Description:
This protein has one domain: Metal-dependent hydrolases (TIM Barrel), CATH 3.20.20. The protein is built from 17 helices and 20 strands. The chain has helices at residues 44-47, 80-93, 116-127, 144-148, 150-157, 180-184, 194-209, 213-216, 228-240, 246-253, 256-273, 286-298, 310-314, 334-345, 361-364, 386-396, 401-415, and strands at residues 8-16, 24-33, 36-41, 54-57, 62-65, 67-73, 96-103, 134-139, 161-165, 220-224, 277-280, 303-309, 351-353, 356-357, 432-436, 441-442, 461-462, 465-471, 474-478, 481-482. The longest helix is centred in the middle third of the chain and has 18 residues, at 256-273. It is globular and about 65 Å long. Mean pLDDT is 93; it is low at 1-6.
Amino acid sequence: MSVTNASLAIRGARVLALDDADHDWALADIVVEGGRIAAIGPDAVRDWPRPVARTIDGRGLLAFPGVVDAHMHSGIYSPLEEDAVSESKAAAMGGVTSSLNYFRTGQYYLNKGGPYRRFFPEVLKIAQGRFHVDYGFHLAPMDRTHIDEIPMLIDKHGVASFKIFMFYGSHGLHGASSTQRDFLMIGEDERYDVAHFEFVMRGLQKAREAMSVDRARQVSLSLHCETAEIMTAYTRIVEKDKSMKGLAAYHASRPPHSEGLAVFTAAYLAHETALPNINLLHLSSRKAVQAALMMADVFPHIDFRREVTIGHLMLDTGSPAAELAKVNPPIRPREDVEYLWEQLLAGKLDWVVSDHACCRHETKIPKRYFGNIWMAKSGFGGTEYLLPALVSEGMKRGMDFNHMARVTSWNPAQRYGLNRKGDIAPGFDADIALVDPAHTWTVRAAGSPSTQGYTPFEGIELSARVEATFLRGHKIYAGGQVIGTPIGRYLHRPTA
């Protein structure tokens, strides 16, 4: 029997099983067979009818369902063939077992335009055999051709989720731009604007209407909610105001009401097009979350899901990371961070992700521009700190462990069609993260397998650490090291 299919038992762990009873097993065994959870309970090993090939001592550890990091970017600043390897290693360090990566045509990524029927098979070919965790992709319809391809992408390639970058109409990845068509690599007769967003929604809803109800509920649209015109105007103002610098300046240049306004637009378009499954990505501010909650009340027939990143929960504009923490939407002041935590604890935010985008130091900001927030690229990695940071900070704030498991595993798995992921329960993939909730350590970039070489989380003291990560019963991370060759599988969604 191969290693991946061999029987495994984890004994005596505190197991966070998200069944109907929202079970928190204080002391339980997990039996794995054929890469799936076979049994769970206080005496699961004793009662198992066959010998267990491997036994792992889980005493003193939390057994979380493997994290579904539903918002990652692989291949944006480095070739996909490189990122797939190194950044999935970082994911395994963070207890991640499923990585969902946003991808699109245009500059960055593969730096190609054209239809997805030609583009996406190349993505899949490059990715195959390189990921250390299971992986899938969200795709962004950038032109009319892509809208027409939505049914094909769902049926043939198992892409069940799509994305709109709302600010790309006149604002580039890093700032104002007058060459958006070149950046997006779309035709002369194409416009990437609100009307395009509407037609994306109509195209996706048309595809959903041709499906079964159960399948359609797992097909959704995600939106990066910022308003290009607001950001462009405020960037001009802030750049002239020499009193503002660093993360505070970037926050002011992309003000929170830019997020709120975009949420309103997205919500009304969803109502207009009858598209019920909307994901509002990386909400970063009080105004953004309040707008999202308001729209949920106004349009109760729309199933809004609200996302937050670990970066926006852990960092604020006073962070010593400065331009290394530049990201879209920006890192916000402390009062916004506290509000995000308040809403997360109240159950108003649905999942926590990394928004991991490995941007090496020399790419992030050349040495000659150190201290200049405007010259830095946007985005940074952090998937390796997702679960330990959430557990560490969450414990301080009274967040229960099952709630942590829901927002890192169950909720995104259910939304994005990963029907064998997100829980420790019989029949589910044996994706497990063993966490020591009493292991204090300090974040150092040198300890990460990511090729980024720095982290905005540098020097932060965490009180929990992932001790081991299992993918389908195979140990892929332990003792601070990634183990073995890549065994990640493509997640053709919905995954039965």
